[in-house]
Structures are given as structure tokens and as C-alpha cells.
Amino acid sequence: MGMSVTTSVATEDDAERILKLQYLCYQGEAELYGDWAIDPLTESLESVRAELKNRHMLVARLGDEVVGAVRGWVDADGIGRIERLCVHPRMQRHGLGTRLVRAMETLLTAEDPSPRSFRLSTGHRSVGNLRLYQRLGYRRVDVEEVNSRLSFVGLEKSVEAQNLAATA
Ligand SMILES: CC(C)(COP(=O)(O)OP(=O)(O)OC[C@H]1O[C@@H](n2cnc3c(N)ncnc32)[C@H](O)[C@@H]1OP(=O)(O)O)[C@@H](O)C(=O)NCCC(=O)NCCS
Fold first, then answer.
1. Which residues form the N-acetyltransferase domain (predicted)?
2. Protein residue whose Cα sits closest to atom 21 of ligand 1
3. Would the CB of 48 count as within 6 Å of ligand 1?
4. Which pLDDT score is estimated for 162?
5. Of 14, 29, 35, 133, which residue is least crowded by CB atoms under 10 Å?
6. Residue nearest to atom 5 of ligand 1 (CA)
7. Whose Cα sits closest to atom 12 in ligand 1?
8. Average pLDDT over all residues of the chain
């Protein structure tokens, strides 16, 4: 039987592995937008280390290997923000991305004060990501033009919607 994937809170030792995974996973996005300077590809190790201290980070592991990651925090407006979701190309389309988003939503819900809604965003041409987030109950709320090639589509869902999905 194969090893199973476990989801857990990232530790300081994971910083390098998270950055490497992110670098690998976001190549497709870079190609899609013809832009290899997107934030996930230019982030420094120091930045990942700082976020490990200041934000919630979850990783999916297969043995010692980090095969998935996601970050989250509750912002000043009480919105649970979810970012930098990535799953190793070899492991994609088996539900791991969904699992990581749901686990992050649960983690953020336990914050005090707990968020009233969740928000994430993706590039306007990333139709796979948009489909994934819509299936998770997120709805488009705004579009922000970054440059002529890229706009960010903002998606949100209420915490009530998440609770309903969890009990369905
Ligand atoms: C987005 C990502 C984390 C999804 O991880 P995953 O483990 O494959 O997610 P799940 O298995 O839970 O869901 C798969 C769904 O994601 C969507 N999807 C995401 N990327 C896709 C792609 N390139 N092609 C087709 N579908 C894609 C589809 O809706 C798919 O559902 P389907 O298989 O029924 O068509 C992964 O594709 C990834 O790392 N992508 C590169 C980084 C990235 O774009 N991150 C999101 C930034 S906002």
C-alpha cells in the first residue's frame, strides 16, 4: 500500500521545502501570463520564514516530502485570507488542494475573533483555479488589474457557507 498524505502545521524547518515546492508549482502560472516575476516565483527564503512566524501555514506531506502548502491569516477587517495554495504537479487533481483550503478555513475559524468570511484570489486566466474555488463555495467579488497581462479575481465566501458545506 502507498504512503498516505498528511496535513499539518508547517514548522521552521519547512521554509526551504515550501519555497522549492512553490517555485515548481507556479511555473505553469508564469507561463500562462508570460511573467516569471510573479510574487510566488520571486519570494525570498527570509519572506517565507517571516510568514511562518506571522501567519498560519499548512503543509501536506508524503513521508518527508512536502507536496502541498497553503498560507492564511485573519486581516484587520476580520476576513480570513487564504494564499499561495500549491500542490506538487505529480500529486495534483486528487483532492489535495481542496483538503488544504478546507483545513485552512477550519484553522482560521478557530482564531479569536473568528473571521466573518474567507477571501482568496487568482489570476483571471487561471480557469482551473477559478473552478476549484467556485466548487469550494467561493463567489467572485471583484477584479483588480495588476498590469496589461494580469488581473486578480477576488473571491469570497461567508463563514456560514463554509459551515453548511462542512455539514452537507
Ligand atoms: C491549484 C492547485 C493547488 C490545485 O491542487 P489540486 O490538488 O490539484 O486540487 P484538487 O485536486 O483539490 O482540485 C482539482 C481541481 O482544481 C482545478 N484545477 C486547478 N488547476 C487546474 C489545471 N491546471 N487544470 C485543470 N484543472 C485545474 C480543477 O477544477 C480541478 O478539478 P477537476 O480535476 O475535477 O477538473 C494546483 O493545481 C497547483 O498547485 N497549481 C499551481 C499553483 C496555483 O495556481 N495555485 C493557486 C494560486 S491562486
1. 5-160
2. 128
3. no
4. 73
5. 35
6. 97
7. 95
8. 95
C-alpha cell at 3: 504512503
Q: What is the pLDDT of residues 144-157, one digit of tens each?
A: 999 898 999 999 99
Which domains, from first to last, does the chain contain? 5-167 (3.40.630.30)
Alpha-carbon distance of 83 to 10, in angstroms, equals 15
d(CA 128, ligand 1 centre) in Å: 6
User: What atom of ligand 1 comes closest to residue 86's alpha carbon?
Assistant: 39
Terminal Cα distance for the chain, rounded:
30
With 0.85 as the threshold, say if the pTM is over it: yes
With a 6 Å cutoff on the Cβ, whether 5 touches ligand 1 is: no
| Residue 22 in contact with ligand 1 by CB distance below 6 A | no
Residues 76/69, Cβ–Cβ less than 8 Å: no
